[in-house]
TrEMBL record:
PANTHER family xrefs: BLUE COPPER PROTEIN (PTHR33021), PHYTOCYANIN DOMAIN-CONTAINING PROTEIN (PTHR33021:SF550)
Matching SUPFAM superfamilies: Cupredoxins (SSF49503)
Pfam families: Cu_bind_like
Keyword annotations of the record: Copper, Glycoprotein, Metal-binding, Signal
GO terms for cellular component: plasma membrane
UniProt protein name: Phytocyanin domain-containing protein
Signal peptide: 1-22
Region Disordered, residue ranges: 122-141
GO molecular function terms attached to this record: electron transfer activity; metal ion binding
InterPro entries for the chain: BlueCu_1_BS, Cupredoxin, Phytocyanin-like, Phytocyanin_dom
Length: 162
């Protein structure tokens, strides 16, 4: 009994920590992952951290989410891609600090502006710019908390019934 309580407490702590620390960004917001959108403008001012996720919304087959090197990003080449997804929507977890480059591999789309570079901070320290700016990431994190908490609650109910 005691060990189960400890397990439940641990689960609650872990799920709360996960909800608090990771943010899911919807690339292009309501426009999704598409042509004729300014993704550098979308990314600017956002503080991406390790563990955050990028949600690319598109219909399967219409676009790709292809992670590439900086030089391939600059030249819109997918011949040395790091990863490639053709099925939408695609969620990419930002697993490491540094700049990550994503382009669409459909001919003409990347050169038409369908490319995204996100710079991921090391995680600690927070924003060097505009600390007072009310930003949307916290709001989207709160929106993500609902499903995550529902899942956690479901696990707890199963544990209690075990
Ligand atoms: Cu495309």
């Amino acid at each position: 009994m005691a060990s189960r309580s400890a397990l439940i407490a641990l689960l609650v702590a872990v799920s709360c920590a996960a909800v608090a620390s990771a943010t899911t960004y919807t690339v292009g917001e309501g426009q999704g992952w598409t042509t004729n959108f300014d993704y550098s403008g979308w990314a600017s001012g956002k503080n991406f951290a390790v563990g955050d996720k990028l949600l690319f919304n598109f219909a399967s087959g219409t676009h790709t989410v292809t992670e590439v090197s900086k030089s391939d990003y600059d030249s819109c080449s997918t011949s040395n891609s790091i990863s490639d997804s053709r099925n939408g929507p695609t969620t990419i977890t930002l697993n490491s600090a540094g700049t990550h480059y994503f382009i669409c591999g459909i001919p003409g789309h990347c050169s038409g502006g369908m490319k995204l570079a996100v710079t991921v901070g090391s995680g600690s320290g927070g924003s060097p710019s505009a600390p007072g700016t009310p930003n949307s990431p916290s709001a989207s994190a709160r929106m993500q908390a609902g499903p995550a908490l529902a899942v956690a609650a479901g696990v707890l109910v199963k544990l209690a019934l075990f």
